[in-house]
Specification:
4-stranded mixed sheet, 2,3-Dihydroxybiphenyl 1,2-Dioxygenase, domain 1, Glyas_Bleomycin-R_OHBP_Dase, 2 helices, globular, alpha/beta, 8 strands, about 120 residues, VOC family protein
């Protein structure tokens, strides 16, 4: 079994392009007014609506710091900060914004974990 997190969006096409073109997500399923994306084991969808859900954080976990740095370089125009070590959670991370203003976190665990 698995689950899907859905968000309403007023900018469906721009949001889908952001996650597929810039973060490497794949379209998993198209529905009449919703697109479900997949990034490794993360399923998340965006549904065209007359309002935007911009609460919560979509977190993308990568294998290592170098990949986080590479993603940061690709997202420099929407990154809120440079990548940094967060000792409390034992991660290397940064935050960015998608076209809806939704928070996107990019991180790697500093010590191996089973994903």
């Amino acid at each position: 079994m698995s689950g899907i997190v859905f968000y309403a969006t007023e900018r469906h096409d721009a949001v889908i392009d952001f996650y597929t073109d810039r973060l490497g997500a794949d379209v998993w399923l198209e529905q009449p007014d919703c697109t479900i994306l997949k990034h490794d084991n993360l399923l998340f969808g965006f549904c065209a609506r007359d309002r935007t859900d911009d609460c919560g954080i979509l977190t993308f976990v990568y294998e290592d710091r170098e990949t986080v740095d590479a993603v940061h370089a690709d997202l420099a125009d929407v990154a809120r900060e440079d990548p940094y070590e967060n000792e409390q959670y034992d991660i290397y991370q940064f935050f960015a914004e998608d076209p809806d203003g939704r928070t996107v976190e990019v991180q790697a665990f500093l010590h191996p974990v089973d994903l």
